[in-house]
Design goal:
Layout: H1 10-25, H2 39-48
Helix pairs in contact: 1-2
């Protein structure tokens, strides 16, 4: 799942914006010409304009324990 599908709720939007804001604070180049210099605001604007894609990692299923038959 990527893009707008991953941001269907506010929680995932906040998590994605926080991660992108940390990237910006670490020196990543903004993908837009933002009015704000605050990393959190720039990250939110990038997401809203569709410049940031958020990909959910595929989760591995827990292995089913083998039960010996007696």
């Amino acid at each position: 799942m990527a893009g707008e599908d991953a941001f269907l709720n506010k929680y995932s939007m906040v998590k994605g914006a926080a991660r992108r804001a940390r990237q910006l604070q670490s020196g990543a180049t903004p993908m837009i010409n933002a009015k704000s210099t605050k990393a959190c605001r720039v990250a939110q604007d990038e997401i809203q304009q569709g410049h940031v894609k958020f990909v959910l990692p595929e989760q591995e299923a827990d292995p089913v324990p083998e039960i010996p038959i007696q």
